[in-house]
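Two proteins were folded this term; both appear here.
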Amino acid sequence: MKSLLAQHALLSAASEQRLVLEDPGSALPFFADKLAESGLPVLHATELEVLQLNMGRMCNQTCVHCHVDAGPDRKERMSREVMEDCLRSLDAHPVHTVDLTGGAPEMHPDFRWFVERLSEKGCHIIVRCNLTIILANKKYHDLPEFYRKHKVEVVSSLPFYTADRTDRQRGKGVFEHSIEALKMLNAVGYGMPDSALLLNLVYNPAGAFLPGPQDELERQFKKSLMADHGIQFHKLFAITNLPISRFLEYLMRTEHYEEYMERLVNAFNPAAVQGVMCRNMISVSHDGSIHDCDFNQMLELPLSAGSPRHIRDLAQANVSGRAIVTGRHCYGCTAGAGSSCGGSVA
């Protein structure tokens, strides 16, 4: 993976002054230059409202589009010490939401302890659940009830409302198990129209193209899942695949990298810039390093110069107003209707 990044120079040449880590030899415009061309300033952070934590890269699945490169063989996981640092940082900043990701965060041995601590602090908790984890082992079968008890918002990837397209992206049998898990969540109240137990689904395109209109996709998913399986959910988030990790490898292998990057650049939407997720969040790696977003985390891009580097130092730092570190991968979040962890932004 490192060699791929070096060879195609997504982020090889650094310039701290411009806060851009991009290959100067590429024909594609710098993201910062695209902002300037559109009359927009370099991105700066607002108040810190969301803390997104990658609890580890262990997962019961190996999805072909995974930008985390997660799987059953990954052993990285967040220590209790880093979790305690995260809890302390919540008291020092106006964070209202903690977003737990992986891998499969539920596989972390301290997952439930951590959710309980967050719940005690009154945080809104989001769990990025791959659905099949609920059925992977008997010890996970009560997760829907656990989520309900702590009013956890469940955000789950479901590539499509048919088995063939879902299984091609996430593995044989995943669709069937996902449907069963969704029924279990519905059974305890998740996804019901008037329920405060939020169940949202995530759609990623299966190839080198942008997602269609989010509202239209949501209508299609709701109609099909209800008609075929009696399943209900609240919202569908359409998220653009970024050229990182396994999806980058796919683009390289199929010789679609340049085409896809040009598609992202040509679809740049100035209206999407203000809604990008990096402006009001900090992304925390399993080792405690902190980043502007989950994608910068995967590319090992730290916060801009003068900002803290580790979660242990976040409680004493002011990170509002910092310049966001950008690269050409940022075109993925600003193409078309835009893309964030909550779907389209424009």
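Next, the second protein.
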Amino acid sequence: MSDPQDIEFSFKVLAKDGAARRGVIGTGRGEIRTPAFMPVGTAGTVKAMYMDQVRELGADIILGNTYHLMLRPGAERVAKLGGLHEFARWPYPILTDSGGFQVMSLAALRKLDEKGVTFQSHIDGRKYHLSPERSIEIQGLLGADIQMQLDECIALPAEFEEIERAMELSLRWAQRSANAFGDQKSRAMFGIVQGGDQPSLRIRSARELAAMDLKGYAVGGLAVGEPQEVMLAMLDETCPAMPEEKPRYLMGVGTPDDILESVARGIDMFDCVMPTRAGRHGLAYTRGGKVNLKNARHSEDHRPLDEASNCPATTDYSRAYLHHLVKCNEALGGMLLTWNNLAYYQVLMGEIREAISDSRFEEFRALTRERWALGDIKAL
């Protein structure tokens, strides 16, 4: 068996249909079919799921969170235990974020300067310092195959000058992150395009990052509360400024509709807590759109969520039973709906890839959105 470190990180576009791309990312731990959805394994676990289930649904890669893992159990401890792949029993590719977004959104009493960010843990108040170099060090200790630069993600709306300041700082941190990452054959570090809702700043950020010749690029600072049309408008401006021969990752996105529309603009990779979080709160995603199992109309419905699915959670349990579990706050309800949701997301990604290869992505996009609009009663 070959050493994962001997296999060079790569990306190849296999088919295009308009701006939509089908491709494959090669890593030492396996290939990632794109467009890809990465289930979020925040603290070394995809909530309410076994890793074997996640793999069986079709996931090629999962996401781990630097902020949460550095606080608990600690990156050095994970490294001693064999790295995140062995620790979590996931021998396939893992992407880790930099921890920057969580520092900005979760940490207490944070102080940011050119060197990095000092913050207090939201768990126990302990003080930490996260610099671009330390973020890359942590991600290396975790063993991540794809690592992200440290950036500053600010909330929108914000003044132009504040967005520009954060974007410029993120560019400087990108170079420092790249220097710390060095030349690792089988792994990659991605830069992150910032610029808020300002097209000129997004384009400038994308072009300056492209000049660094990194192995991949992400779009950050979107899906943070702005309307979908703003997010898509930023992608319309940003994607053409990003290198065509490198993978493009839209961070923290999103709903099935967000994914469909972003693929249409040239995005290759996605992650989001939405399918797992929604499942734990009684919301199912299906071919017929969203199904709120808290709704009393499901209380005597014998039908499964979708009898055409290959997922047991979707086909083997009645809506009445799922409604009962959700209303009783039973853990099994969240487990089954999370299973269903992640299954639907992976089916959607597979259908997207197939449609791009067959040069019928626009037709697929229109029919899929039409089915969602009909709703789960009529569409299924």
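The longest helix spans residues 331-357. The longest strand covers residues 10-17. These notes refer to the second protein only.
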